[in-house]
Amino acid sequence: MVVGDLNHHLEQQAYENLLDVQGLIDHVTFPTHERGGTLDPVISDLQEDTLCRHQLGPVGSSDHHAVLTKVNVGVARDKATTHTIWMRDKADWLSLRRDLQPTSWTTLLQGGSESMAHALTSHLQPSKKRHVPHRNYTTRPKDQPWFG
User: Fold this and answer.
1) Which stretches does the entry tag as region Disordered (predicted)?
2) What is the separation of C-alpha 22 from the centre of its chain, rounded to a whole number of angstroms?
3) pTM, whole model, 2 decimals?
């Protein structure tokens, strides 16, 4: 954001080119000088609806009016995410081994590393769900970090 007494009327074409080339907006649409000129721009790449600006009175003995600009930045919130918590210490490892015993690993693990990793994960996941106790935990955006 650029603000101030830029006197851009002295180089109007260069000023307009700068705004155009950089994708900037002059958000001040009202006079900021006693004689009616707009000499004090508020320039940014923000959308119009994220700014609220008002002309205030003259500042001290200056012939310029103050420009109050409020920017609504909002707060970015993460979406809720769900994680699976596996309780490996309570797993039935013997039953899991028994489930995997008949697997033909050479047949399953074919191709490149990506396809082998996908095949292995897809094959192990159903047995893992059957024999390793687990629960889903959802982290919400407003949760405190130490509760996750």
Assistant:
1) 120-148
2) 22
3) 0.46
